[in-house]
Amino acid sequence: MAELIRRSSPEGRVKRGRPDIATSGDILEFWFGAPDASGTLPFRSDWFNGGDAFDARIRARFLPTLEAALAGECAHWADQAEGTLALLLVLDQFTRNVFRRNARAFAGDAMARALAERLLAQGWQRALAPVQQVFAYLPFEHAETLADQDRAVALTSGWRNDPTLADCHDYALRHREVIRRFGRFPHRNAALGRDTTTREAAYLAEHGGF
């Protein structure tokens, strides 16, 4: 059974260098909070429905850390499981919060996907709580390639009957279907300066975007 990575992990926090750069422990504490009375990390609505207020909190506290991570200055975090998960959150999630509706929202995707590959290769996902695994696998779901989408579906397939995480598997299926149909996510076109096809426009008018 997976065990959540705790802030007291013997691997420890990545040591602080610049005072404006967070540690891996800071990132995990902010994102996941504390376990509940049963020792389980709860699923937080802020992650996907936090809106402008949640984006602003991340921008105010972690923008220097995000910029440093995008510049490769936090690559040493990936030497252990805690740092890898924290860096994944910064590159795959914080980018989307801080740079929403901007091309830079996707600037960390390639690095995040490589980190997710490394995490799986090391078997570190087995040390993660289920809600932490969600964010370890999302870089594959965010990719505009069918092979990565297939991998996201496979990684989340065990959650299909889980009362907390079934929606995560459902979203993986829905994302894969979009890539099957269009080869890309049409809702990103405006931010990335891509022309939207007639088929994509019809889809967006009916379904919106992810």
Automatic annotation (TrEMBL):
Gene3D superfamilies: Tetratricopeptide repeat domain, TPR-like. Coiled coil: none annotated. SUPFAM superfamilies: TPR-like. It comes from the Bacteria. Pfam families: DUF924. This is Membrane protein. It comes from Chitiniphilus shinanonensis.
